[in-house]
Each structure stands twice: as structure tokens, then as C-alpha cells.
Amino acid sequence: MGKSxxxxxxxxxxxxxxITVIIIAVLLSLAAGAMIAGAVYGKRISESTVNxxxxxxxxxxxxxxxKDETVAALDASGREDALEGVFxxxxxxxxxxxxxVIRAGAVLTNEAAADAAYAYGHTGDVFADLFTYLRCRAVPxxxxxxxxxxxxxxIKSMLEKGAKLFAKRTSGEEYTLDEENNLLVFRKGLNQxxxxxxxxxxxxxxxVLAGESECTIPLPEQSVTMPDFDALFKEMSAEPxxxxxxxxxxxxxxxxxxxxxxxxGAKQLWNSAAILEDVSVPxxxxxxxxxxxxxxxxxxxxxxxxxxxxxxxxxxxRCGNIALAAERLNGIILMPGESLSYNETIGERTEAGGYxxxxxxxGDQVEDQVGxxxxxxxxxxxxxxxxxxxxxxxxxxHNFAVAYLPYGLDATVSWGxxxxxxxxxxxxxxxxxxxxxxxxxxLTIEIWGTNLDGTYIEPMSAWWATYxxxxxxxxxxxGAVSYRYKYDADGSLxxxxxxxxxxxxxxxxxxxxxxxxxxxxxxxxxxxxxxEEGEGGETDTGGEEAPPEYAPEG
Length: 554
Description:
single chain; alpha+beta; 4-stranded antiparallel sheet
């Protein structure tokens, strides 16, 4: 009996094992079938040319669309226009950068978004793609927040611009002198600070990936060097000196401002200041009377006088002499108190000096002389110096009146004597501008300087005929008197100042002597001719005209 029970138990156990094996085999068969089916379906999904169902880009449902259809749908939605915006980067010193979010790669373009939509669930892993597919069927998926590919080159180029702008705003003169408030103002760290582009890039990337719309980058900790206040004190403690004009360099030498300050106090103020904070050091300032900027604004700003005379009909040689003399006058600067001699300035009239023979007066005759014509330059200069209200030191009128200026306002010259000379008795330097226009046969001379009160001069003259003493009805020349008419800035006459007297002779051929008078010796006794009645006539006597002492040149 016991033996039969044991046999039955063994049989039962064997049947259980067989059943279990059968069940496992069935399950494995089912699993294998499922895997085969899943693999097949997953492969279809992986190889599909359309997006998975339920995929969205923002509010646009792109499920089941191809890439091209996805781009078209996104374009039609105006998505890129809506996303066109900026990412703000705030740098120190109020430097603000505005990064285009699409160019920076912080937001996907429509093309990139279409790629991301299709890539979702199309990895090539059939089971992973199947699982993604099933999840999209259950829950719609928005891919607008997919990680964009940041444009490192663009972002760094913008940050480099910001760093340069920061460097510009933190550079400049070591200090400024606030004369109004008696302060010497420094800016701590000026010309010593910089921003690191790589570290700024890391901060921007972190903000972008965190979904932020802007980031602020603080000034990195940097050590700065204190100014050498001891050396600066020695440099600035010079005696105050006025600005002045340097003729050699034709420029203004700026003033020296006397400055004194407490060196130790300046160091304490510096140490207690923060980076890029103004450090205002109290100073004792001594300001010179003449300031450089003011002097520059005044120098040669006003035309004190200007005159153009013409020389139509002059020979080529005379035109050349006038141009050469003008060239030697042009650009001359006279400081206050300095004088100019016309003869010394234009030099002796020689062929070696560039002058040519041209018509000029020799006594009462017109002859070719080397330098003929330069009297027109001296006369035009004389007229201009009168307008400029300058001191005349030497002036002689011509023997005969000239046609290019009113009587009494000319100045003749000859090598040696006579000379024309004047002095700059004004408060500021003057500059002579002289030039010719060959086509117009015109000579222009101007004097530039500084006119503080706006007054001006108009040279004026009056003239009259002069007559022979022996023959009062015979005109032998002209007399003239000249004046400076001085006006205020409004044109009201202030004064009439006597200038000079002039006498001019008429040419011999222009004098109408009585019959019988010798034009070459008009004051010689006239030989009496017996009258038919035998009566004698009266005899006129007179003095002899002195020969000329010089030969004017033009």
C-alpha cells in the first residue's frame, strides 16, 4: 500500500512538470510573436516619412506631416515672426547687448523645428520608436522647447563688441580738473579693467538653457593700481602761466594751472572708493588769466582789413613782380609790438632775386626798371593797414597819382628809401594774407587778427587841384588829405582821425602852360618880342624845381 502511494505521487509530479513546460512554451511562443510583431511595427514607424501623431510645435499640430509640410504649416502660422525677439545681456557700465534669439540659436527656426519634429520617434531603434509612438498616441507632445543649437560664433562676436564698448567707457584721461568746484576727479580703475568673453559666454548659455530672457553679468573682481599722487603733486604744483601763441609752430601753447592738494588725503579717498567710483580730491587752484581754448578761439578770427586792386594792361614782367612781392608777404605774422619794413620783407629788387624789368617812374619819366610794379603791392598793403587800424611808421606818396587807389591812400617805395613800414600796435597777433589772380589781373591783401569790440576803419581822402604860384590859373598837380573814419559795431561814426597829406604832380604833357612858356623850364624869364608899337612886355620869374631824390618803382 505504501509503495503504490509513492508511485502515484511521482506520476503526479511528472504531470505537473509537463504542464508547466507546456505553459512556458506557449508563453514564449506568444512573446516571440509579440516581439516579432512589435519589431515589424516599430520598423514601420522608424521608416515612416511623416511625424508621429500628436506632435505639436507650439500651437501648431504637425502630427502626420512630412518635413516639407511641417515647414509650410509653421510658415503659415507666422511662428518665426512671433518668436523674433531679443535676449538681453546687461554688462557693467550700462552696456546693453540685444541678441537676436533665432540667430543666437536660442529658438528653433521653422526648418530646425521641422527636423526636430520628424526626429522625434524616428531614431532607428524600432522598440524605442514604438514606445514613443504609443506615448504620443496617449499624450500629445509639444517640441517647441527642444534644445536649440546655440550659435557660439554669433554670441561671442556680440560679447566681444560689448567688451570693447565697456573698455571704451572705462578709459580716458587719468583725471579731470573741476575748476568750478575745486576738485581733482579720478575714476578708480580707469584704463585698467576688462571683461572676459569666455566667462560671459558661459553665463549667457546658462541663462538661455534655463529659459530666461536676459542675464546680468557683474564686473569681475580685478585689482587696480593707485595713481602716483606724489609724482602728480610735483607735476601739478608748477607756477601758473598764461597760454600764449607760438609763431614758430603756429599754435597755442596752453596755460599752466597752479594746483595743490593733500597727497595723504588723496590716497585715503582712493583706498575707500569702490571700483569705477569717482574719487574727488579737494584742490587749491590758481587759474591763469589767458586760457588756451579762449585764445585759440580769438586768434586770427576777424578780417581787420582787405583790399583788391587791379592791374589790367600790365606787362607780363609787371604781373610777375606783383605776384612775387605778394608771395613774400603772404603768411607773415606780426606779434604785438612787432614792425614790418616792406623793403626788408620783399628784398632788394634784382634779377637774381626773381624780379624782372617792368615800367616804373624815374622822376617824371616812365622807364623799365627791375621790380617795376611792386609799388602797387606796397600801396595795397598800406590801404589795408589803415583798415586794420595799425600804426604807420613810414609812408611816402607817389610823385604822380595812381589809378588803382584813391588819391592820398597810396605808398611808394624804392630800394633804400623811401620805405613803407608799420607796427602791430594791437593786443593780438596779426597775419597777412596776400595773393594774386592772374586771369583777373587782381591783387588781394588781407590782414587777419582779433577785433574784440567790433569797431572798424574806413580810409577816406579828399583832394583838390594845385596851381602854379607864378601862373595861378595853371594846374600843376593835386593835393590830398587822408583820414581814418572809425565806426562802432553798429555803424555809428565814432571819430575822424587825420592820417596824412599827399602831393602829386601832373605829367608835363598834361600841364597847359601859357603861350611862350617853356614846359621844361616854365619859370625861366620869357624873352620879350618887340611889339609893333615898340612897347616892351612884362617878365615872369620864379624858382627852379628840385630834381627828384628817388625813383619810385611802379
